[in-house]
Amino acid sequence: MNCDLPIELLSAYLDGELSEQENAAVESHLKECPKCSEELMVLQGIDGRVRNEVFEEPSRDFFFALNRRVMDKVKVTPRRSLLRFAPVFAPVAAAILVFIVLVEISPSRRIVGLSDRVSYQEVAPRQEVQISIPEPVISAKPAPTAEKRMAKAAYDESIEVKAPAADVAEEQAISGIDERERAARVRANIVRAIIDTTGTIVKVATGNTLVPEEDTILEKELAGQQLSPPTIEGKKKQVYFEMATTAEEEEEEK
Amino acid sequence: MYSNIESDESLIESVRTGDCDAFGPIVERYKLALYKVMYRMVMNRDDAEDLVEEAFIKAYRSIKKFEKGRPFYPWLRRIAVNNAINFLKRERKVTTEPLEYVEKTLTNGHFDPVRMTREKMLRERITAAFARLPDDARTILSLKVEDDLSYDEISKVLRIPKGTVMSRLARARVKLKELLEEME
């Protein structure tokens, strides 16, 4: 356009968006300006063409299936219910229930680990208690490893039971050896074992660290062996004990 | 079952109370009008159809936000237009196929121009020119020519000032006129 009428005004005039005053001014201009009149006609034509011609028929699927698709999707809106967790809860709950039942029906076969030592923590001053530990039956097959030899020696020859309630004074009197000296002579290989109330060896570990290392070979050989049930003060008890070979005993074995 | 003669207000009230079947007549009632706006915004049939479907689903899921007593279609259209604007920002893939098609058909030696009517050629040309407009120009022209919205209404739908509506609409018309002149 080569006149002063802004195109925004002409466009807004076309849309009927001008105030009365602006509208009158544009109409007055259009009467005098053929170019603006022509421009207005072109813009009107463009709107009509966009309305009537810029269009592509939707697909048949749109006409016939859109409603169903929308309804299918809105109907499966997830419900905010706790039941939505049922697929997860059900198996977990079932597993917990089975576990509880198994533990309850076989209390003597419950899983016993080295951590069970906590049940033997001292809660009272040490007392002298007589513990009866039956000798395990070791396989006649020669032990292929040094650990097994030592374990066998520990069982066969010199079992030293370190009861949690051993009376130090009496033990000194019996052995005639100072406890500190004796401890110093104990070699590294300490075998720790748990025997349950039925006399079954359920766990075996070796090592002299605070956390014994699992000895699968030794455990495989000893675990499950049936001994006469250990007793403490005449009552059947599950016991945890340590066995250690002394240097002297090892030398004898050699 | 709901009939198509039930008012929007009655159908929407049923939807609000949990009867999703009442939404069916709403879809039937407005799907074509929405499609026309969506098509002009994205210039692609498949995308436009998907956007219409998305708009209805979004509207259904936020039906509780719809204010009672107000007309339903402008609310639905606003959801659809905003969704399409986001789509255009995300995808930026307004097709130029109509333009390519016109150029190809006009220059292809095997094409018999006699068989193509003048009306059809003009139609292809305006479609191609419209597709070449910027996103915001196509959107504002779509709202104006299809639904004949006032500047106030366009301003609310697009969340832009009324003055911006006026200038953007004028620029869109001028640009479209220039594109058509280039293609003649």
Could you walk me through the main structural features you see in this protein, from its secondary elements to its overall organization?
The complex is a heterodimer of chains A (254) and B (184). Chain A is an alpha+beta fold and 254 residues long. Chain A has two domains: 1-77, Arc Repressor Mutant, subunit A (Orthogonal Bundle), CATH 1.10.10; 127-253, no CATH class. Helix content of chain A is 46%, strand content 13%. Chain A has helices spanning 7-14, 20-32, 34-53, 60-75, 86-105, 146-156, 168-175, 179-185, 216-222, 247-253, and strands at residues 131-132, 186-195, 201-206, 213-214, 231-232, 235-236, 239-246. In chain A, the strands form two sheets. Chain A has a four-stranded antiparallel β-sheet. In chain A, a hairpin with a 5-residue loop joins strand 2 and strand 3 (201-206). The termini of chain A are far apart. Residues 139-143 and 158-174 of chain A have low confidence and may be disordered. Chain B is built from nine helices and no strands. Chain B has a domain at 1-92: RNA polymerase sigma factor, region 2, helix turn helix motif (Rna Polymerase Sigma Factor, Chain: A, Orthogonal Bundle), CATH 1.10.1740.10. Chain B is mainly α. The A-B interface holds A 6-8, 10-12, 15, 17, 42-43, 46-47, 49-51, 53-59, 61-62, 66-67, 69-71, 73-75, 77 and B 20-21, 23-24, 27-28, 31-32, 35-36, 39-40, 45-46, 48-49, 52-53, 56-57, 60-61, 122-123, 126-127, 130, 141, 144-146, 150-151, 166-167, 169-171, 173-174, 176-177, 180.
